[in-house]
Design goal:
single chain; about 260 residues; globular; alpha/beta; 11 helices; about 45% helix
Length: about 260
Amino acid sequence: MTAVITQTEGAVAVIAIDRSEVRNTLSVEVQQGLYDGLLAVRVNPDVRCVIITGTGDVFCAGADIAALDDLRASPPTGDRSLARQFWTELSDYPKPVIAAVEGFALGGGCELALACDIVIAGATARFGVPEVKLGVIPGAGGTQRLIRTVGKATAMSMLLTGEPISAADALRSGIVAQIVPAGEALDGARVTAGRIAANSPLAVSLAKDAALQSFESVLQLGLTYERRNFNIALVSADCHEGQAAFLAKRPAVFTGK
């Protein structure tokens, strides 16, 4: 059976983990499916936004604990490993990625949500990094992205106790952008994705690219990078179209050029 299902809905692609019988744990097959889905969508010019979600009532409950022995035998740290390739692809992805989270986003599932650009959560969602309870630590960016997202106090509490937080606390701490009624996270993500897809895909990509530089560089270098991307956008066909459409009071037709 397919562990991940990718469907295109107009300008939006939905990539869904389909292992609800095991709470959508992040197995090798799931990582391969997510990686393949992202690669396929990357080269599809019609898709302007991606949603990652889980089937059933769970986003992703983390790693497959039974597979830890396999990880010991072949640690997923090499440059050519599937895990390294998948997480690098998601980190560097040029199109906006929204996580639609219902239920548990634990361990690798929380790291998956953190690696996305926007998180829309159902009201009963829970976020946590319980790896220390198993004698291990987050290994897919959790220690780094969490502290940058929520700050030292909350990050250290989550990382060192292993206890999860509610959707409401995740909203207050900056993990979640919006809370919707339980069971409506995917619908909420589709609304946000539609709003993103209506904008210039070139400008959206440049804005995301510049914003993510804030994690990689000091302020002055980030501002220089932002100015570079601004100048690229300013002379683009999309910018000319956006200006003309605004002045003519008509909808803009963006082409990503």
